[in-house]
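hiii so um. not sure if this is the right channel but i have a protein structure encoded as tokens and i wanna go backwards to a sequence. like what aa goes where. can anyone help
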């Protein structure tokens, strides 16, 4: 359920109209303590209600309407940007975690001792990266050191072989006689 509509800075709606709107949309009335934020749906309802209940003899100016629309667009774009930033942070954390698979990591255990664990796999659970190790599940924030590859592998996994390339010839190679040793 959306949050109840409350007073918005610069709004011209009076408290009795606000109470009527909240009641009309099935939202609880709000007091001055709840007037700090509203969600996108509540903002649109408030905008529609302002247009619906405005004084026909003294309507809102087009500049006010354009300003309100621009503010709404700005807030919507900031929300999208925040969502993208959170997604980027999760992707970055997962990339970091995947680079730790097969590596030894140092963590501080519940007794305050440094212990090493070998990372077996990484997974994303509820937006948080978890590392499955031979000592249990760890978060990235618990790691205080990264060691060498685990003893079962002496080096990182071998990369795939480079694609074969055709030999290149230079102009001097083309002028040399075939089969001669120059």
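sure thing!! here u go:
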């Amino acid at each position: 359920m959306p949050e109840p509509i409350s007073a918005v800075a610069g709004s011209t709606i009076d408290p009795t109209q606000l109470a009527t709107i909240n009641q009309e949309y099935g939202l609880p009335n709000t007091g001055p303590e709840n007037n700090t934020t509203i969600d996108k749906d509540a903002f649109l309802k408030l905008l529609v209600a302002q247009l619906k209940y405005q004084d026909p003899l003294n309507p809102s100016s087009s500049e006010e309407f354009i300003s309100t629309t621009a503010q709404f667009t700005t807030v919507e774009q900031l929300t999208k940007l925040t969502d993208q930033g959170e997604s980027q942070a999760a992707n970055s954390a997962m990339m970091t975690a995947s680079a730790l698979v097969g590596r030894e990591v140092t963590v501080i255990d519940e007794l305050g001792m440094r212990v090493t664990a070998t990372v077996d796999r990484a997974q994303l659970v509820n937006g948080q990266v978890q590392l499955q190790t031979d000592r249990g599940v760890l978060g990235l924030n618990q790691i205080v050191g990264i060691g060498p590859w685990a003893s079962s592998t002496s080096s990182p996994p071998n990369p795939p072989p480079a694609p074969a390339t055709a030999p290149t010839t230079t102009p001097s190679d083309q002028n040399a006689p075939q089969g001669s040793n120059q």
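oh and Residues 1-60 form one domain.
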